[in-house]
Amino acid sequence: MKKILSLGLLCTTILLSQAQAASTPTVSGVFEKTVHAFAENHAPLGQIPASDLLNQPVAGIDEETGFLKVQTPKGLVLVARAAVTTTMTAAAPRETSCSYIGTLAASGTGSSSGFASNCKAGAR
Amino acid sequence: MKKFLALAGTLSLLGCSTSNPGIPAQGTYISHITPPASYPTRPALQKLIFPHNSEIEGIVVDPTITAYMEQIRDRLLAQWPGVKPDAPIFLSVDEQFSSDVSPAGGMFINAGMIQYFSDNPETQSEDAFAFIIAHELSHILLGHAADKAANQKLEQRFSGASEFGTMVAAAAGGSAIASSAKTALLSLYGAHTLSEYGGFPSWSRSQEEEADTLAVDLMAKAGYSVSVAETSLDALNTADQRDAARAELKAKAAQEKAQQEAEKNQKDNLTAAVLNPILTPGFSLLGSGLNYVGKGMVYVNLDHPHAAERRAELSHYIDRNYADLIPILHKAPFQKWIRSQEVQKFLHESQAINEVADMARTKNWQKTHQLLAGIGSPVRSSQIWLYFNILTEAGLGQNRQAIADLQVASQRDDVILQTVLLWADYLDSQGKTDDALAYLAQEQKLFDDPATLPKQIMIAKKAKKTITVDELVVECQMTGIDRLQQQCSAASKS
């Protein structure tokens, strides 16, 4: 009975680990060969090799700075979000119904480039 | 060779409005820019907010909400080494996750943009939101909006002048006129060549990247953390991916297109059906140019630089110039603002007025009346609220009140073009032709847009003012805007 329980626990642990691994975001890319890194207390660590970060798990976000907490073989480091790409996905904006009436401007003079495209493009 | 000369000549006319060297391979962008000596003076509100007032959403004014955004703007603007433009900030009930800048230098923040930050607590920092303000401010500082407006008008003049010259030559004949026509044709050729070679490009891609980059520079100099500058680009990227996945569902896309067509047909007839009964016979709003788009379109079109590419470009730049900085995020003031009663009320009311717009499609005026009654300030005092309130009153048979409200709305400096056309139609229907024409001419000047010309021609034609019709038709031809020319032509033959 104990053996069965132990086996069950082991299976559960393995499955949980696999699920956790699948959901844990990782560093998927870098822009330079070295990356500026900081300690958890925000002290500069200088530049570390990009290879130390690639495919390493992102343990979270530093609340004070917004930097990524990356678990490397040499310990936890903070790196700027801009310094790496990750498998993390940002929340999407709400879906909208778009607009109901297009512009009446005869010249078609749209505003300058909006931050995002305008889904009223068909009317512009 | 001639092609080249025509291109060169036209380019020299275009001039170069900004001393912007482009994003450098080394160093910061802001350090390479020579700021312009001045910016255009702030025009009257109607021109300042154009083209937002040519759309039904118009603007929403609420200093209790925009004051905080203006503080962020001023902090960023203080980092700009040159003359500081006004860059006033307005709100829009638009649900899209976007912000915008008008050619005259007004900034517009959509409810949909604010909603995103409200919905996602992890994004709530002044730094992340400052990027939005900084991005739009950068469009103004770099002269993008003014460039675009100027180029469009120049192109229209080229095309319009050439077509008019050719028209005259064809009609009159003779060597002198023929010579003018040749010149006109050369100009037309030049303008078309220019378009072909990108003389009048939309510049959207490079403009967006320049605005993103200068935004980051301004943020860094202002002490903001640029590490969260890409928050909004990440959101756009997610939306892009979502849309791309959906684009593969062809069947669904076809269905959406069919739905759009159906709604377009339905909406084209809506205003006329509702408002015609309050006006005298012979008055029709069918020619007022209402252009319903309908629901169901993909959230973010792919005609803007893909968010992923923008993000990659910006990341590279930030990593190159600011990777050694680790500033603390400014969270508390933003969280206080985004959670404030005023902001939440604006978001709630923006949703409500969009529900009214949806409900108006079904002509359920009792329901729109109920929804409109529940909307308070600031949206209640906006033109979109007034517009749907007028429709609702007319739909419920409250004609006198609808006309009174239409008159009030038509005289405000934030008036939307739809309301302008409605009021002119009403004046015309009451036999006040001269008043209608004078009102439209005045509004055309204030909007600085010729959209009302077909309506002016129609009214003048009906009143048998032949000389006025001819003058207006020539003015319309000179705009060089095909769609408008066709509308004017149709109006003159009506």
Automatic annotation (TrEMBL), chain A:
Signal peptide as annotated in the record: 1-21
Keywords noted in UniProt: Signal
Protein's name according to its UniProt entry: Uncharacterized protein
From TrEMBL, chain B:
InterPro entries in the record: Mito/Outer_Membr_Metalloprot, Peptidase_M48
Coiled coil residues, start to end: 237-273
PROSITE patterns: PROKAR_LIPOPROTEIN (PS51257)
UniProtKB keywords: Coiled coil, Hydrolase, Metal-binding, Metalloprotease, Protease, Signal, Zinc
Pfam families, per the entry: Peptidase_M48 (PF01435)
GO terms, biological process: proteolysis involved in protein catabolic process
One MF annotation (Gene Ontology) recorded for this entry: metalloendopeptidase activity
Top-level lineage group: Bacteria
A GO CC term assigned to this protein in UniProt: membrane
Signal peptide residues on this chain, from the entry's feature table: 1-21
Cofactor dependence: Zn(2+)
Occurrences of domain Peptidase M48 (ranges): 105-298
Annotated PANTHER family: METALLOENDOPEPTIDASE OMA1, METALLOENDOPEPTIDASE OMA1, MITOCHONDRIAL
Name the UniProt record assigns to this protein: Peptidase M48 domain-containing protein
Source organism per UniProt: Gluconobacter sphaericus NBRC 12467
